[in-house]
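name: query_chain
kind: protein
chains: 1
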Amino acid sequence: MSEALALDGVTFVRGGRTLLDDVTFHVGRGEQWALLGPNGAGKSTLLSICSATTFPSRGTASVLGSRMGTVDLRELRRSIGVVDPRHPLRSNLGVLDIVLTGITGTVERVPRWQPTDEQLERAHHLVKTLGIDGPEDPRWLTMSQGERGRALIARALMTDPPLLLLDEPSTGLDVAAREQMIRTLDELPVTVPGITTVVVTHHFEELPRGTTHAALLRNGRLVAAGAVDDVLTSEHVSACFDHGIRVERDDRGRWRATA
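structure:
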């Protein structure tokens, strides 16, 4: 199986502080990964390298078969969908316009830019598929956090990316909205066959049931990485969080971690 991500010996230093230390992280195409660890572990930094946004200080990083430093990053980023709940939109765009900004890679609609009929049709399809259509066009400033989250996933999918990265997509959601988000993530491999996903979280109950692989990060170093059932054990998780933690999976395939 070809690889969506191949990070080898990646170290990242900022302001004299080592945020990632000799990380080797390989993700096969079509796999669904979870990246977990305590606050400050380096999860978002690792994700920024996976999104071809940040260069490693040392080591090599290849995304979708292209080694960073040898390719046009603007073109490569068109093949990577990124979902960040801290999306900095300030104007009151409607959901369709929000989704269409995924084509231009901008926060706001680009003046005088118009989508093609095919692009407009895809945006309508994604809005409907992700359940954010309605009799009235939902707008950013009055959307619920759950609607915003699904709108940002639709936006990220506009360019039909083979790789989707989600940085704590359940941030700020209440229980009902969180469950809707988890269901959306569970359905992605069916909605978008062949897609590879990496979801960053530190809450085990937020893991989609379809998660195939997991990585645990602590103080910028990988504690464990591989098949989800091999990695999310009480032993590995306790070492990652430096605390005795019992990890269980119920008969529905949902994870739970308790002290």
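note: Helices lie at 43-50, 73-77, 95-104, 117-129, 145-156, 175-191, 228-231, 234-241.
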